[in-house]
Write a structure and sequence with these properties.
The complex is a heterodimer. By secondary structure, chain A is of the alpha+beta class. Chain A contains 4 helices and 7 strands, in the order H-E-E-E-H-H-E-E-E-E-H. The chains are: A alpha+beta, B alpha/beta. The interface between A and B is medium-sized, with 31 and 22 residues.
Chain lengths: ~170, ~120
């Protein structure tokens, strides 16, 4: 099991900056822990795949109440009906912006690419989602509405090459 | 922004309705006309050819065809097309690739309204 802690800081920085800018609220860094896979702890999950010189998934998870308050803050001026229509989409875009900004911090190379997939969103208690089986760093962030958990399950491509013996084993998440 | 009483026509391409709404809310009160919206690269190319907008705001990460591919295809068909990338992927490689294919500006999400506005106005100048 190989986990690289250098992936954490770009996500902390990106999450704090993005949430502050789009929802106009403060975010505080919380605990860091480990899991065998990026299994979410709360009822709303947003999964973003990462591929390129790093590969894996980033899973954002929060309680429904936290998700609803964040969306409300991100859609100031919109009616409750409009917010309802845009709810899933807005959460997906929040995860997209945090992951995208983090990839820019992770990728300082001109020649390497790091791409992300469009977000997949799961809500409710009994939703089954497909998660990668990769060692995961779990980052807790705290907002005034409650915690947001970011599970980072990323591996460097050369690590996978070493394990699997070649690039052929890699595919888009 | 209206020139000789004619509003500049914008096509917004993004798979996220949240971003399309934000861009609309910034540009419409400033006198721009949103002539169409597209949610993926294929739709973007098709709507560009149909609508011939003055400017396109283009996301990168989208299903079916990504924004860089779509921008490349639009610029191949119309080298005078004005396209601004609006993306969360603020990596240097993406930026260099975008300018290489002829994109006018590169805006990283999340953005302040003034950033989008100045990119659009500069590209249309």
């Amino acid at each position: 099991m190989k986990i690289n802690a250098k992936y954490v800081n770009p996500f902390i920085e990106a999450a704090i900056n993005v949430i502050k800018q789009v929802a106009k609220i403060q975010v505080r860094r919380g605990h860091l822990s480990f899991k065998a896979k990026p299994e979410p702890s709360f009822g709303v999950s947003i999964i973003v795949g990462v591929y390129g010189f790093l590969t894996g998934q980033v899973v954002y998870s929060m309680k429904t109440e936290v998700a609803e308050r964040l969306v409300e803050k991100m859609l100031v001026g919109k009616s409750p009906e409009e917010r309802k229509v845009l709810y899933i989409d807005t959460l997906g875009e929040l995860a997209n912006m945090i992951t995208g900004n983090a990839t820019a911090l992770l990728n300082q190379h001109k020649d390497l690419s790091l791409n992300i997939t469009t977000p997949a969103i799961a809500t409710g208690e009994n939703i089954s989602i497909t998660l990668v089986q990769k060692p995961t760093l779990v980052l807790g962030l705290y907002t005034q509405y409650g915690p947001i958990e970011i599970s980072i399950a990323l591996e460097e491509r050369d690590v996978i090459d070493e394990i699997d013996g070649g690039e052929g084993a890699l595919s888009e998440v | 922004m209206a020139e000789n009483g004619k509003k500049k026509r914008i096509l917004i391409v993004d798979d996220a309705a949240f971003i399309r709404t934000m861009v609309k809310d910034i540009l419409v009160p400033r006198g721009f006309e949103i002539v169409g919206e597209a949610t993926n690269g294929n739709e973007a190319v098709q709507k560009y050819m149909e609508l011939k907008p003055d400017l396109v705001t283009m996301d990168i990460t989208m299903k079916e065809k990504d924004g860089l591919e779509a921008a490349r295809e639009i610029l191949k068909r119309d080298p005078n097309a004005r396209i601004i990338m609006v993306t969360a992927l603020g990596q240097e490689k993406m930026l260099l690739e975008s300018f290489k294919i002829g994109v006018k500006d590169f805006v990283v999400k999340p953005f302040e309204p003034e950033r989008i506005l100045s990119a659009v106005e500069k590209a249309l100048a």
